[in-house]
Write a structure and sequence with these properties.
Belongs to the nlpA lipoprotein family. InterPro entries: Lipoprotein_NlpA. This protein has 276 residues and is an alpha/beta fold. The chain folds into two domains: 127 residues, Periplasmic binding protein-like II (D-Maltodextrin-Binding Protein, domain 2); 104 residues, Periplasmic binding protein-like II (D-Maltodextrin-Binding Protein, domain 2). The chain contains eight helices and 13 strands. The strands form three sheets. It has a six-stranded mixed sheet with strand order 2-1-3-12-4-13, with helices on both faces. Strands 9-6-10-5-11 form a five-stranded mixed sheet. Helix 2 links the parallel strand 1 and strand 2. Helix 2 packs across helix 7. The N and C termini lie far apart (78 Å).
């Protein structure tokens, strides 16, 4: 009788024991999963960079990478924050801008991990519908950072609006203009402000990320636009001391994947072009 009673008690306690074992096992698995997750913090401009990163975030999560996205609206602080090791890397700039950034900040810490997309640079006007309508002495606004001001001048030269000493010099400045038949005046401003002052000038050359944020369609709303062969591919960049991290390699692979190519093509419809 005592044996049966003890046996019943043992059997009654079995579910609780199994639940305890399951809890311990689950806890260990959770800890193991947490240990397997590699956090990667990347700086990005809001559009399209942060949007693309948001798209790949769940894909990376399945690969054990916790992608954190820090959004910046200027072109300097993301690079500074990476140099100072507050962030792991950035995704917002192209090679000419990176070259100028390294010169101005006297360092060579950042390295390119992958080319991702091209944002064709374009010119906009709220006053004129055709390029031929631009009057003598028209005011043209361009970005004031060296790489994008040079990019603007090259694009204007390609349209026959001016002539440069070297039509292939991506670092061209206003001093390199040798012919300006319509006596255009140039206003150099911070790139992010250009959409806001568009109505105050005759023509503005605007980076596509800022144009999209301002609800401008580079394909439909611009007077002219770069072609897809632009050398200004936007880059995923890391510091030299963390470029070989597996998490970075996973992020680069996903950003150059068929899924991302399809996302870019369907979402931006020519305003952003895959560079891979």
């Amino acid at each position: 009788m005592s044996f049966n009673l003890n046996r019943r008690r043992s059997l009654a306690a079995l579910p609780a024991l199994m639940a305890g074992i399951a809890f311990v096992c689950t806890s260990h698995l959770s800890v193991a999963h947490a240990q397997a997750t590699d956090t990667l913090t990347i700086a990005a401009s809001p559009v399209p960079h942060a949007e693309i990163l948001e798209f790949v975030k769940p894909i990376l999560a399945k690969q054990g990478v916790d992608l954190k996205i820090k959004v910046f609206t200027d072109y300097i602080q993301p690079g500074v924050q990476v140099n100072e090791k507050h962030l792991d890397g950035n995704y917002y700039l192209h090679q000419p801008f990176l070259n100028e950034f390294k010169k101005s900040h006297k360092n060579d810490l950042q390295v390119v991990i992958a080319k991702v997309h091209v944002e064709p640079f374009a010119a906009y006007s709220t006053k004129y519908k055709k390029l031929s309508d631009l009057p003598n002495g028209a005011t043209i606004a361009i970005p004031n950072d060296p790489s994008n001001s040079g990019r603007s001048l090259l694009l204007l030269a390609k349209q026959g609006l001016l002539k440069l000493k070297d039509p292939n010099n991506i670092s061209a400045t206003k001093r390199d203009i040798i012919e300006n038949p319509k006596n255009f005046k140039f206003k150099e401003l911070e790139a992010a402000t250009l959409p806001r002052i568009l109505g105050q000038v005759d023509l503005a050359l605007i980076n596509t990320n800022y144009a999209i944020e301002a609800k401008l369609n580079p394909v439909k709303d611009s007077l002219f636009i770069e072609d897809a062969n632009s050398p200004y591919a936007n880059l995923l960049v890391a510091r030299d001391d963390n470029k070989d991290r597996p998490a970075f390699k996973k992020l680069a692979a996903v950003l150059n994947s068929a899924e991302v190519k399809k996302f870019i093509q369907e979402r931006y419809r020519g305003a952003v072009v895959p560079a891979f």
